Amino acid sequence: MNRKVGAFAAALAVLAVTFCSAAWADWTLNMPRGVTTISPEIYRLHMLILWVCTVIGVGVFGAMIYAIVTFRKDKGAQPAKFTHNTKAEVIWTTIPALILIALAIPAAETLVKIEDTRDSELTIKVTGFQWGWHYDYIDEGVRFYSFLDRESNAARRLRSGIDPRSVENYLLNVDNPVVVPVDTKVRLLITAADVLHAWWVPQFAVKKDAIPGYVNEAWFTATQTGTFRGQCAELCGMDHGFMPIVVKVVTREEFDEWVAENAAPTMTRSN
Amino acid sequence: MSTTAIDVHAGHHHPKGVWPWIMRWVTTTNHKDIGTLYLTFSLVMLFVGGALAWVIRAELWEPGMQFVQPHVFNQMTTVHALVMVFAAIMPAFAGFANWMIPMLIGAPDMALPRLNNWSFWLLPFATGLLILTFFLPGGAPAAGWTMYPPLVLQQGASLPFSIFAVHLLGLSSIMASINIIVTIMNMRAPGMSLMKMPMFCWTWLITAYLIIIAMPVLAGAVTMLLTDQFFGTSFFSAAGGGDPVMYQHIFWFFGHPEVYIIILPAFGIISQVIPAFSRKPLFGYAAMVYATAAIAFLSLIVWAHHMFTVGMPLGGQLFFMLSTMLIAIPTGVKVFNWTATMWRGSLTFETPMLFALGFLFMFTIGGFSGLMLAIAPADFQYHDSYFVVAHFHYVLVPGALFGAFAGAYYWLPKWTGVMYDEKLGRWHFWLSTIFVNLTFFPQHFLGLAGMPRRIPDYAVQFADFNMMSSIGAFGFGAAQLLFVWIVIKAVRGKGEKAADKPWEGAEGLEWTVPSPAPHHTFDTPPVIK
Ligand SMILES: [Cu+2]
Ligand SMILES: [Cu+2]
């Protein structure tokens, strides 16, 4: 009995140490709130369902732990004889159903917003290929390829001898980032040239598959300037881990300048 | 011809010599022999799949590429999944079904013994075929266990081999399922109505139907891949007028039920173990049966929740979100009923109960993350990230695998005639529990922080959690050696002699026969009142 308690305490201690040290280091434990009009809404949805699960978990795990601690044979517990209890069963079927409805309503509302790609002010065609991205600003005439940056690409070779920690934004940096204006509804037309890929920037809460023969739509309106990073999220062969996405959100003026500079038919590494 | 006192198969004629011994196992039609073959095979495969996982976790130990090329890494993740799903977990439960279903329903054997032999013996060859692909030009399959086209069609020589292996594995499990259905429907002892069957038989009956519905669909999907690659069709090639997304729909029509094919038999085992060690009958037996059936039905209409990011119409996304959320209701009923079974019981905590409790806690965690994944807008963030990896490993490892361990410890005395080493069993439980959480809990954080799955290398901010996860994986794998040792000890007859009914609170026909169970049981059916 004591030994069991000891083992349990040891297990708890390990978990506790794990979580405390996690809190001290600058590790991310949660989904980012994001920098677009939709991303905080998805974050709130995530937190809502997480809290619902936590509350139910406290109840269910609490009941389990109470049963384990209380109804022990070594404490002289005598088994009861009941085999069912209709009232309890109706309750724990109905209440979860109500909770699910309460979750489904905000989820459906957010989903409707996410799918509404109307009234976009800028359209970028995004093409995934093995292994990089091609961006085509349809109305602005800017198009370019975007590959993993040179430093990461050298360091990520098998036994390269280069410490990844010495590379800035290791595996999350590209030669040519996407540039978009802030507070502008940007529509992405996502497709692929060879196999499946997926365009994912966590801070935008946008993840959409790039599929040969399909043009998928996604959109975002960034609400702050800055550089935001993501990766391909659909297995696409050996260099799937090495085709990051970098988006620079800039002011309208900076964006117009950037377009003016790059509207020429060619740019680095494009053809 | 001899019989030995400590032999599991006491009372049966045993030929001497290596060749006759081999032929005995190759030609056996006895449900207990075949159960043993399944269980042994699955335990071996657990270590094969585990070795592949160790390569994965070694490469992910720290940022940078240290051990294998990315292409090899992709082979590891792909074959790890295929081996664990089709060669370790599914055969483990088929082993339990073979050993226990006839004894639980008072039948002398499975209904179709020769089919039974063939179902098993397809397995080692199918799995062998799959593993042999490592030695082909281009290596083993590397497009993920989901085998999505067009990527899978870039695979090279391993493609036809892995497709044929999938066909054989599917054939094996379909035949096993037919056998289980026929056995349960026709061979129950007089007086054992369906609603008097032990829960394990119910969950397997429903699983068997799911297998028969789902497996041929997978076979169809991979056959279309085969013809796309070699016979000029373009089912999944957009350039030829086909549709790569259609493959995903077909695959997940199999793939989601597959999740329940894996977990329902574990539900059944847990429903046997918890009442036994609570000394109290299973709470809400009828509700448990209906909940299992409801889960199975729902599992057939939720498949596209694996594909929220492919660009489905809004209506489709809403349907699959809502239908998926519904699964939480019958699953909740299961968890609540298990808890209610313990309520006001008289609990003891032998190893089977420890694993059942581990299952109860950690499967519920996997259930929670499953509910989170069902919420489509949030899934856009979780999808294809390590959050998903954490989710399904919680369901599969401390879920399905812990269920299998609970069953193994529960019935080992009946199989071997001796009590396993209780002290080592508890060690096995605690080490497994600590390490499994160390492996998979941090992966939730990795996924939320934005780490995609199936990548061989990662940005440095993911380093610490990955190292934790790797430590957990190495520890978990090593802890399973303890299980092998415990089983070997019991099989060799080392340990206290087991009574016919070694567990005070256990109920069921299997405890009315001697321990070890003689080679033939219930030649005359028992009568159930
Ligand atoms: Cu990719
Ligand atoms: Cu599913």
Describe what you observe in this structure.
The complex is a heterodimer of chains A (271) and B (529). Chain A folds into two domains: 1-116, Helix Hairpins (Orthogonal Bundle), CATH 1.10.287; 122-262, Cupredoxins -  blue copper proteins (Immunoglobulin-like). Chain A is built from five helices and ten strands. Chain A has helices at residues 2-24, 39-70, 86-114, 150-155, 252-262; strands at residues 122-129, 132-137, 142-146, 178-181, 185-192, 197-201, 206-210, 216-221, 226-232, 244-250. Chain A is elongated and about 85 Å long. Residues 22-26 of chain A have low confidence and may be disordered. By secondary structure, chain B is an all-alpha fold. In chain B, α3 packs parallel to α5 (158-186), α3 packs parallel to α13 and α13 (386-416) packs antiparallel against α14. The two termini of chain B are 40 Å apart. Mean pLDDT of chain B is 94; it is low at 1-11. Chains A and B meet through α1, α2, α3, β7 and β9 of A and α3, α7, α8, α9 and α10 of B. One copper (II) ion binds at residues 256, 259, 302, 305-306 of chain B.
